[in-house]
TrEMBL record:
Identification of the protein by name: Transcriptional regulator
Superkingdom, taxonomy of origin: Bacteria
Gene3D superfamilies per the UniProt record, alphabetical: 3.30.450.40, Winged helix-like DNA-binding domain superfamily/Winged helix DNA-binding domain
SUPFAM superfamilies linked to this entry: GAF domain-like, Winged helix' DNA-binding domain
Listed SMART domains: HTH_ICLR (SM00346)
Pfam family, one: HTH_IclR
Domain HTH iclR-type: 4-65
Organism: Janibacter hoylei PVAS-1
Molecular function GO terms recorded: DNA binding; DNA-binding transcription factor activity
Length: 223
């Protein structure tokens, strides 16, 4: 597939700047892109005009306010695109379905759906619901897709080995959850998709629900 080289260079420059939290100089950017310094300056000047990068007092360039605006719009559009998939998962499973992302040490729900026809006992789980990554199937699934660490909790190790995470009462008493990590929704934004319901230990039919969650995961990873 043919590409526009100038546009490709600009996008590559954005990626390099985004990964340098301490900023980057035009000279280093030129080396990273394999272009002359004059070319790096032109790219940075264009991005700066769009507020996608900003030049600090130290002469280094960092992401600008325009990049933040795009990030916010992306998440809104992603939520809208994911909602039909989450709704289908809720209808298939008869459980509350969700997509969550990692935000620091917490997991936050960004898309939630209830089954159109009430089946299993529902649970109050809303967009914006937060809890520690170490509790809840979604948080455990997010941790399980990261590189193994010596101090990983047993639940994370088990989820990594099984390919899915389970929870039983960590979010609220009687809440049973099943989730799978979605990988990175965007750069440095890790996600998970799954279902949750109220019930007694053993009420969650993992063998039946897991294929539904796996299918939904495949769908959201292509958004």
């Amino acid at each position: 597939m043919s590409t526009l080289q100038t546009l490709d260079r600009g996008l590559e420059a954005m990626d390099v700047v985004a990964r340098r939290t301490d900023g980057i100089s035009p000279a280093v950017l030129a080396d990273e892109l394999g272009v002359h310094r004059a070319g790096a300056y032109r790219i940075l000047a264009t991005l700066e005009q769009r507020h996608l990068v900003t030049k600090g007092a130290d002469g280094r360039y960092r992401l600008g306010s325009g990049a933040l605006a795009y990030a916010g719009r992306f998440m809104s559009q992603y939520r809208l695109a994911a909602q039909p998939i989450v709704q289908e998962l809720a209808d298939q499973s008869g459980c509350t379905a969700f997509v969550s992302i990692a935000d620091g040490d917490e997991s936050v729900a960004i898309a939630v759906a209830e089954p159109s026809v009430r089946g299993a006992i529902g649970i109050s789980y809303q967009i914006g619901t937060r809890h520690p990554l170490s509790s809840g199937a979604d948080g455990i699934a997010i941790l399980a897709q990261r590189p193994p660490q010596p101090d990983d909790p047993e639940a994370v190790q088990t989820a990594r080995a099984d390919g899915h995470a389970l929870s039983d009462g960590q979010i609220q008493p009687g809440a049973l959850g099943l989730a799978i990590g979605t990988g990175s929704i965007a750069d440095d934004v890790e996600g998970a998709i799954g279902v949750i319901r109220l019930g007694r230990p053993g009420d969650l039919d993992v063998a039946t629900l897991l294929p539904f969650v796996q299918h939904a995961r495949e769908a959201v990873t292509h958004l």
